[in-house]
Amino acid sequence: MSLFCDEKFKFLQKHPFIAEIEENCFVGYVAGRFKLQIILPDFPQLDNINIAVFDAQTTPPTKESNPDASAILAILSQLEQLKKEHHCQVHINSSLSQLKLSRFKGDDQHFLELARASETAFSVISHSLPDLGSSVELFMYPAAPEAHTTQFVRVLEQLEEFYSNLNTLDQLCYVVDPTEVDTRLTWRIIKFSQKVFLKITLHPLQPSSIEVAFIGPTDEIELLREQYNGKLEDWDPDSDVYTNMLRIFEIMSFPMRTEDEADAIDCGICMSHRDDRGKIPIVSCDNEKCSLVFHIDCMKQWFLSLKESKTFFAISIGTCPYCKQKLSSSFDMLLRCL
């Protein structure tokens, strides 16, 4: 084999997504959408090269020419390798200035979006990972797509237990918020009883390290908080969050959502189960004989309408719309919980 043929063989091996159709003229497809036409008149030298990228999904097909052959080929080679290695989908625009990798191993929820910062380096402009805290620096500097993707997948593997715990809560609890699953969120608000709700927040890299906020009548949540704090020492690191919470509160299961929300309770003010933001009523007064619950926004507006209502250090004080018992709440804190 001549030196010239050997060089061409190595070139095609390095870039398996292209093929030679004429002397020193190559074509190929990337991501099932983009057609490349590469002309190398001085091959194996890359001088005087011409690369055309055609977007086959536009009518008529658009063409972008870029003489930076080595950089373009390096990027495209990386993308083809990433598709095979991580079983993901790759989306690129016709100018190769933005990339999106998604469906990692068939997972519809996770994605990584990149914008080109230099010839071969990209900056991460969006991703589906949660905030890992100030001690973990992710995607701080421009890098090759391969480097960003490797870091993304490595973190994703470290978050398997975190996502498993959240998925168990989603499946086995009545999650009142968030109304739609978002992979960047680290918390769930679940129903404990008719008037008591728990906000459970997990640390992504330490899923057994959780924070629990209690929402409901003062006497009830104080008893639950005391029970929770008293049994934290018995937390079993080999069990998931759901199982540990059942053990702490000495219950067989948490309430679960019915498909048609047949057991849904309406707000005592607007008479609707879900408000304009899709939230359910979770605020109640301390009167054990008063069974009504209210949307946070509805109760906040009710307090504002009362002449005798007052606010001290963000704590609003007023009366229940029905039983007239005094009621105090930090609506701003509750709104931050959602």
TrEMBL record:
PANTHER family assigned: E3 UBIQUITIN-PROTEIN LIGASE FANCL, UBIQUITIN LIGASE PROTEIN PHF9 FANCONI ANEMIA GROUP L PROTEIN
Entry superkingdom: Eukaryota
UniProt keywords, alphabetically: Metal-binding, Zinc, Zinc-finger
InterPro entries recorded: Fancl, FANCL_C, FANCL_d3, FANCL_d3_sf, Znf_RING, Znf_RING/FYVE/PHD
Regions annotated as coiled coil: none
Protein name: RING-type domain-containing protein
GO molecular function, one term: zinc ion binding
Matches recorded under PROSITE patterns: ZF_RING_2
Ranges where the RING-type domain occurs: 267-324
Database matches in Pfam families: FANCL_C (PF11793), FANCL_d3 (PF18891)
